[in-house]
């Protein structure tokens, strides 16, 4: 029941919030998100890493199709659930000092999205999983269309059609799996270790992976992403980059690696090459981007490329790195897009040109922004380093050359992050005499402060998180290499 | 590498306090700096470095007396996945104990100096916060018990360097210099990281005490060891400003002068030397890598010295001199003379910190002026600064019995034993050193005052907080060399440093066989030659700048080809700009405008458009005319029947 509550609480909260007016709807949403975070903490406390899938609930749903309502949590689910529930309160709090039209609907959609994404992370029935996967698309569609930037319509449409098209392939993939399973089932336990022949595995891999590759996104399926991240309202971008793209990464863990292991082994070189190409491509483009939101979008794309390369490296270091980095990237992306939002809020636009001088008048913002930036640049003792190190050392196990090329992100990321930080925050503002940039308000301080603390805490002491997921990863590797 | 339990128990607290006190200083000054009075903030920071110095002295004394042996302290598990276990651990031995002394000792002096130097700066407390953070990371660097902990310090000092070069963040040129330093260091850092990956693959561990004992199973020049050492060396070239990654260091002079003294002369830039000395067992197994190090070190030593000849900014001269002196340390590393390399790290920390701090005192007195063409005649005005600066200058020029003579002589002797040609080139570089340093000294302190009236009226000797560190460092620059008196001068066991550090190299069997044995008479002769050469160069400098009173060319004057080449620093920056920076930037735009927008997104849009156009065409068939539908149905049936009859 605990697991279902994780989905139900935000869902009920979303409905409740609809009855609240204006700013009180924000408070309701925040409380709901905090309750869910508390529940997550309780689950973490009770969680036994060695015990596999826990907090299970499995009952028949559509008996004629063999579909069950089967939810549960293992180490891999838990880190994603944790991310979604850390992200939730931060995202909701991030709009506290902003004027949002129809705030009650906006917050209801955020909570609805939260519920659907958590549903994806805890479903152990393929059909149920698919329902949640598609459900998650609906709120973000309305969030983008209703609250997005001036160019939102074509961008939202492209995003929607692109990901929906991917999902259809995935649906076919699951149907194929259904027919290959022993007695017609969508259940995770019945879909792993099926001993399908390689051709069937490759077909299923292709069908499932196209949906996941679009969601992450992976090179070259990414072209919906920069526009969507740029045009979505800040909270939409946070949801997309912070949590939603992890649905793609998580799904590879859950529905590809253990389900079609031979196909993975067959294609890993290609996948790693594509991912590494994405790292270089994304970081390179990020260097000269003018709109910092677009810049962060390409940066995010590059970072996800590294995670994707780790997914296919078939060793514990890389997989642990991928999980760690999923959590960390989510937190840091929320931080970065919030910084972009704060700049836009104060200065009216996000162009890096003609900015500067913020450090001089808003030292708290400049410092917190710098900490989030250092986390993104993956300085040791910040959260970004642990995942990046594990990913790179894992990829090196697969191929030191791939690791060396992927490692260029270490240099590129420093270039584009320091460059944009310098242009926007440092220096003096020479453009306008009446330059003002009020330092952070309380709610902004709380959001960025928590993120900054997480940047440092997870960087200094990642051990508990690593231990939480390690048995699940080792079990997964056993399944794959059986 | 024994792990004596008593020692660990005794020093567990010490080893915790040594890095944590500066860190505490950083936290206090960083969080509450706004409400702290300047003097208190500065004093707090200084004490936060001085107490660790005292603790380091006590540890050093125990190593000296033999009471302590190398020990490891593990604090907690940092990163752990399967067999990859990376604890937060410190490994303390003779090498790290000496580094601790330099970092906290010279560090304390520079903190004290900064209390005077930065007193009027509005960012005073922030400055001390950064300085303390730097000391913290630098200590982590030399104390780390495995490569990744060292790497924490390695990147951490890079961060502090970035923060301090761009300390006056209003100036975007300074920020550029800071960014350049960070990015260039990151290039090296990637090499370091890849080396760590290979070390883990090869040895199954990255802890010093676990991997070095395994080195014995490898033969000479085995591919994997050469790869590891080359990658470590790439890391070292970034941090220690060697070719081709040295151009960030002169730009780093944008930072406040105490920063140049502490980070960009005495400590951080020697991290590369530390890394290689620490890994000496691996490097001794890879003579190929050592040859590369030797060549790079030699080239850097000479190019740095050549550029130093024609610099007119007092700090830039010292910066290129640092590049060049670091080159000498790498020459020693390339020769396998690890102890000599460290010896030069130590003496260089004394005299270069002294010279930079002296330069700061001069700049202070000159109301911010840094161009030596606008100085002159300062000797009588700022005598303490002048005298101590003179001592630093003599020390770096290699005149006995000052510190630089002994350490440089040890490197030169090793070079001669390896190959007289190397010795000749290295000697040439050190002659250039003597010349440009005395050129700097004479132009600054002798002749007529060439500054403005305003500057003249403000000339003053610096306060005690500034001059005391100068005097202490001057004393160290005089006596520091006696730590390593060569056998030929002092008799057997006169080289205290070599015997003190010998446990660090005890497991390196190759080194035992490779130690140089020069004939005593020959060694004496070489010394005489190098001293004579230095004296000749000093004389030339004297004649040129004092007797003849010539002045360096103005920026506007026409210069010969070589003069221009040197004055423009061999166009390294321009070269990198043309072959790296510009193409990277251009390709960034090209990738976006062409590949991203035109090809990838273009293809996706094309798919969308095809669908829309296709449906538009098909839509035309839906005319709503019943007759047309019947006609279409009839035709279709006919076609189906036709096909069925044919096949």
Task: Give structural attributes.
heterodimer; A: 482 residues; mainly alpha; 3% strand; globular; B: 647 residues; two-stranded antiparallel sheet; disordered N terminus
Q: Can you tell me the overall shape of chain B?
A: globular
Radius of gyration of chain A, taken over Cα atoms and rounded to an integer in Å: 21 Å
Side by side, the strands of the main sheet of chain B go 1-2
Low-confidence stretches of chain B: 1-5
Strand content of chain B: under 5%
Number of helices of chain A: 21
Residue fraction in strands of chain A: under 5%
Largest sheet of chain A: 2 strands, antiparallel
Give the distance, in angstroms, between the N- and C-terminal Cα atoms of chain A.
Answer: 33 Å
In spatial order, strands of the major sheet of chain A run: 1-2
Number of strands of chain A: 2
Overall form of chain A? globular
The overall pLDDT of chain B, averaged over residues, is 90
Helix content of chain B: over 70%
Strand and helix order of chain B = HHEEHHHHHHHHHHHHHHHHHHHHHHHHH
Largest sheet of chain B: 2 strands, antiparallel
Say how many strands of chain B there are: 2
Description of the molecule:
The complex is a heterodimer of chains A (482) and B (647). By secondary structure, chain A is mainly alpha-helical. In chain A, 74% of the residues lie in helices and 3% in strands. Chain A contains 21 helices and two strands. Chain A has helices at residues 2-17, 22-46, 75-93, 103-122, 126-135, 137-147, 152-180, 188-191, 198-215, 225-231, 234-256, 261-287, 292-311, 316-347, 358-361, 363-377, 383-398, 400-406, 408-424, 442-460, 463-480; strands at residues 54-62, 67-73. A two-stranded antiparallel sheet of chain A has the order 1-2. The longest helix of chain A has 32 residues, at 316-347. The radius of gyration of chain A is 21 Å and the shape is globular. The two termini of chain A are 33 Å apart. With 647 residues, chain B is mainly alpha-helical. Helix content of chain B is 73%, strand content 3%. A two-stranded antiparallel ribbon of chain B has the order 1-2. The termini of chain B are far apart. The chains are: A mainly alpha (482), B mainly alpha (647). At the A-B interface, helix 7, helix 12, helix 14, helix 17 and helix 18 of A face strand 1, helix 5, helix 6 and helix 26 of B.
């Amino acid at each position: 029941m605990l697991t279902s509550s994780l989905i139900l609480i935000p869902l009920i909260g979303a409905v409740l919030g609809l009855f609240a007016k204006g700013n009180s709807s924000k408070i309701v949403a925040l409380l709901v998100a905090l309750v869910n975070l508390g529940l997550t903490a309780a689950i973490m406390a009770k969680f036994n890493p060695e015990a596999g899938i826990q907090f299970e609930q499995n009952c028949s749903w559509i008996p004629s199709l063999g579909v069950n309502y089967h939810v549960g949590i293992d180490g891999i689910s838990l880190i994603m659930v944790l991310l979604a529930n850390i992200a939730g309160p931060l995202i909701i709090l991030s709009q506290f000092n902003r004027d949002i039209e129809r705030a009650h609907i906006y917050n209801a959609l955020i909570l609805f999205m939260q519920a659907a994404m958590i549903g994806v992370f805890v479903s152990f029935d393929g059909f149920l999983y698919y329902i949640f996967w598609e459900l998650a698309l609906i709120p973000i569609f309305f969030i983008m269309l209703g609250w997005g930037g001036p160019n939102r319509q074509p961008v939202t449409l492209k995003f929607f059609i692109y990901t929906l098209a991917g999902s259809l392939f995935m649906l076919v993939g699951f149907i194929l799996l259904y027919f290959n399973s022993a007695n017609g089932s969508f259940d995770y336990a019945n879909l792993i270790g099926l001993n399908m022949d390689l051709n069937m595995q490759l077909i299923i891999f292709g069908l499932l992976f196209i949906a996941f590759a679009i969601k992450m996104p992976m090179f070259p399926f990414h072209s919906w992403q920069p526009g969507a991240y740029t045009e979505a309202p800040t909270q939409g971008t946070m949801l997309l980059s912070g949590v939603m793209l992890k649905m793609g990464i998580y799904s590879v863990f859950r529905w590809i690696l253990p389900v079609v292991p031979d196909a993975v082994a067959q294609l890993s070189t290609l996948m790693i090459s594509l991912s590494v190409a994405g790292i270089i491509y994304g970081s390179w483009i990020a260097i000269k981007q003018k709109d910092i939101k677009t810049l962060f979008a390409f940066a995010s794309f590059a970072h996800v490329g590294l995670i994707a390369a780790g997914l296919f490296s078939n060793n514990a270091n890389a997989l642990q790195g991928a999980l760690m980095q999923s959590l960390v990237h989510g937190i840091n992306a929320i931080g970065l897009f919030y910084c972009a939002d704060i700049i836009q809020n104060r200065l009216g636009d996000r162009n890096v040109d003609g900015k500067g001088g913020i450090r001089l008048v808003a030292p708290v913002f400049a410092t917190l922004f710098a900490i989030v930036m250092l986390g993104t640049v993956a300085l040791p003792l910040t959260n970004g380093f642990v995942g990046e190190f594990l990913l790179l050392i894992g990829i090196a196990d697969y191929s030191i050359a791939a690791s060396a090329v992927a490692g260029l992100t270490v240099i590129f990321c420093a270039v584009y992050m320091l460059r944009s930080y310098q242009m926007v925050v440092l220096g003096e503002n020479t453009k306008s005499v009446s330059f003002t940039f009020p330092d952070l308000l309380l709610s902004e301080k709380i959001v960025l402060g928590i993120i900054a603390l997480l940047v440092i805490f997870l960087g200094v002491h990642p051990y508990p998180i690593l231990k939480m997921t390690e048995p699940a990863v080792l079990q997964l590797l056993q399944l794959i290499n059986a | 590498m024994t792990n004596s339990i008593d020692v660990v128990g005794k020093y567990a607290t010490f080893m915790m306090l040594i890095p944590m006190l500066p860190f505490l200083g950083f936290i206090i000054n960083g969080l509450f700096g706004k409400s702290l009075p300047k003097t208190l903030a500065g004093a707090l920071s200084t004490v936060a470095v001085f107490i660790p110095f005292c603790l380091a002295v006590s540890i050093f004394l125990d190593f000296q007396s033999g009471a302590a042996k190398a020990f490891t302290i593990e604090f907690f598990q940092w990163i752990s996945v399967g067999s990859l276990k990376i604890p937060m651990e410190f490994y303390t031995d003779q090498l790290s104990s000496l580094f601790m002394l330099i970092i906290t000792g010279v560090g304390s002096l520079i903190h004290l100096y900064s209390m005077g130097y930065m007193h009027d700066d509005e960012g005073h407390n922030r400055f001390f916060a950064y300085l303390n953070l730097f000391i913290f990371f630098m200590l982590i660097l030399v104390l780390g018990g495995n490569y990744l902990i060292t790497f924490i310090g390695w990147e951490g000092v890079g961060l502090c360097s970035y923060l301090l070069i761009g300390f006056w963040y209003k100036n975007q040129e300074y920020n550029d210099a800071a960014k350049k330093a960070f990015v260039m260091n990151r290039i090296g850092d990637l090499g370091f990281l890849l080396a760590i990956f290979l070390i883990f693959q090869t040895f199954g561990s990255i802890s010093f005490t676990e991997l070095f004992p395994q080195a014995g199973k490898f033969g000479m020049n085995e591919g994997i060891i050469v790869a590891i050492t080359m990658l470590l060396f790439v890391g070292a070239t970034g941090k220690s400003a060697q070719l081709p990654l040295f151009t960030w260091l002169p730009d780093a002079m944008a930072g406040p002068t105490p920063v140049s003294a502490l980070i960009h002369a005495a400590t951080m830039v020697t991290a590369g030397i530390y890394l290689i000395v620490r890994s000496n067992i691996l490097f001794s197994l890879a003579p190929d890598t050592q040859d590369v190090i030797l060549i790079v070190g030699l080239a850097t030593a000479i190019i740095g010295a050549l550029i130093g000849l024609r610099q007119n900014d007092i700090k830039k001269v010292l910066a290129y001199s640092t590049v060049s002196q670091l080159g000498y340390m790498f020459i020693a590393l390339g020769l396998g003379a690890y102890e000599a390399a460290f010896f030069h790290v130590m003496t260089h920390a004394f005299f270069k910190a002294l010279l930079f701090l002296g330069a700061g005192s001069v700049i202070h007195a000159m109301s911010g002026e840094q161009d030596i063409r606008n100085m002159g005649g300062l000797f009588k005005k700022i005598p303490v600064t002048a005298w101590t600066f003179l001592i630093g200058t003599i020390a770096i020029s290699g005149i006995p019995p000052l510190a630089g003579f002994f350490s440089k002589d040890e490197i030169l002797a090793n070079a001669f034993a390896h190959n007289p040609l190397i010795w000749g080139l290295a000697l040439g570089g050190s002659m250039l050193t003597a010349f440009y340093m005395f050129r700097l000294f004479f132009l600054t302190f002798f002749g007529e005052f060439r500054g403005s009236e305003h500057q003249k009226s403000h000339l003053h000797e610096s306060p005690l907080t500034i001059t005391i560190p100068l005097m202490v460092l001057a004393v160290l620059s005089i006596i520091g060399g006696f730590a390593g008196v060569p056998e030929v001068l002092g008799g057997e066991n006169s080289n205290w440093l070599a015997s003190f550090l010998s446990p660090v190299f005890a497991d390196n069997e190759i080194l035992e066989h490779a130690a140089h044995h020069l004939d005593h008479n020959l060694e004496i002769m070489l010394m005489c030659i190098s001293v004579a050469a230095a004296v000749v160069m000093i004389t030339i400098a004297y004649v040129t700048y004092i007797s003849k009173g010539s002045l360096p060319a103005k920026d506007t004057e026409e210069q010969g080809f070589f003069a221009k080449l040197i004055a423009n620093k061999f166009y390294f920056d321009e070269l990198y700009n043309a072959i790296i920076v510009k193409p990277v930037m251009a390709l960034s735009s090209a990738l976006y405008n062409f590949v991203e927008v035109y090809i990838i997104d273009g293809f996706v849009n094309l798919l969308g458009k095809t669908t829309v156009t296709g449906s538009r065409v098909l839509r035309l068939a839906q005319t709503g005319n019943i007759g047309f539908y019947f006609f279409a149905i009839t035709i279709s049936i006919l076609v189906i029947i036709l096909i069925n009859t044919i096949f």
